[in-house]
Amino acid sequence: MAPGATHPGQLALLALLLPLLGALLPGLGGAEISMWPLNTIIPKGGSMKVNCSVACDGNITSFGLETHWHKTEVDHRDKWKIFELSNVENDGTLLCHAVCQGNQTQVQGNLTVYWFPEYVKLANLSWQREGQHFNLSCQVSGGAPRTNLSAVLFRGEEELFRQSVGMEEPANVTFRMLASRKDHGANFSCRTELNLQPQGLELFWNSSAPLKLQTYVLPATHPHLATPELVEVGTPVSVNCSLDGLFPASEATVHLARGDHRPPLTITHNGDSLLAKTWINGTEKEQGTQYLVCEIMLADEKVVTKKNVTFYSFPPPNLTLSEPEVSEGTTVSIECQAHGEAVVTLNEVPAETPSQRAQLKLNVSAEDHGRSFSCSAALTVAGHVLYKNQTQVLSVLYGPRLDERDCPGNWTWPEGSHQTLTCQARGNPTPKLICRREGDGALLPTGDLGPVKREITGTYQCQATSSRGVATRVVVVNVIHNQNNMVIIIPVAAVAILGSVGVAAYIYNYQRKIQKYELQKAQENAAMKLSTPASPP
After folding, report:
1. Each residue's pLDDT tens digit, 318-350
2. Topology of 402-483 in CATH?
3. Using an 8 Å Cβ cutoff, are 44 and 116 in contact?
4. What does the alpha-carbon distance between residue 229 and residue 203 come to, in Å, rounded to a whole number?
5. CATH fold of the domain at 318-397
């Protein structure tokens, strides 16, 4: 049985009792009319029975029910009638009326129709910037009575706001919210509640499909685009684009493009930071300045950074030697040649007006073996001067060299001292060196000798041999030991003694000569005095 419907047996019983009550109760004399149920609520499109009863002592000339709904009289007696209302679509009033002994009497009742909303829908949730207010709109179509209908906003299972649904059709219930980072990804839904508990019925509800809210933070700063200003064609270079303070970083999209070319990206996230990496390369046809653009988008916003990148071609210079390996005394030509608009310089060539070619002629000697020649090319690109170098090493063929610089001819050390003996030969090709001692043919020890022993004393014949000749040298090694010290000390002492004796004899003879000279001089003076005549008195 639908809510508000009345059983026919109840109506019939009530129809029999009402006239009796009218006769028994005081004040009911004359004509009285009643309706049951007087005020009721039924579902939309439903049916119900209404009993109209009259208490009249005289003749009833008119008796019925007035309503705009479709009605059917299903039962009656002299003083009561039962009507059935069907397909009730909206609220309205009922009027039971009668004319008793020429006097009209009537009673009015109210009929309320209830029905559930046809749909409840939460409007599409767009991205919301953190810290800004926005509206959540709950759309409700249908449902009555509206005075008993509410819209409730939920975040997950948590009730946030509650608001009455207005009388508009359809109704649009708006909730004001502040976008918060914690709400990102949360499910929001709108629920309608039709509360008929005061009418003796239930609380009926219906919920919309849940929608996810997306909040975001996009800083006003531009992305940091790390790229070289100059890129040589054919040489891949790394490019990075990064942005901090981005939320949610994983939801952002990145476009990193060079002109119409968008290379594949590797994107990583770390908290509120985003880093996009790629490699760019250019071809000969792409030389010149191009835009490199990094664009980071989140929600309906984007931040952009642009930089100029210049692609250039700069082959290294050509450095050639007329002969990379020559014999000493040969003249060699060294030439340095640049490509394109580059200019070159060749080491040891006096700087003149920059040109694309530099040359040097050299009559080589043994000292030029292993000599390095460097050719440097310079190219100006977008205000920057770039350099590239080429190096060649000259090989000079010459015979063995065995001289004092590389192999000293005389070594004298005290026995037991720690010494190092070096003896090596120069030449190209590298000569083979053998040093043997005269007499027994023992090899000359070289390198770290440790404590020097007297056994290495001797004269060694050294010979350096290669395909370009032979060089020889005599090396003498002397080791001073105790016996040799005495041999040296005795002659030195003897020489010292003899020298002292000689000095003493020289001094003695010198003094004798002086004394002899003075005596002789005195004798001559005396003789002169004797031979001189005396002066007259």
Report:
1. 999 988 899 999 999 999 998 888 898 888 776
2. Immunoglobulin-like (2.60.40)
3. no
4. 71
5. Immunoglobulin-like (2.60.40)
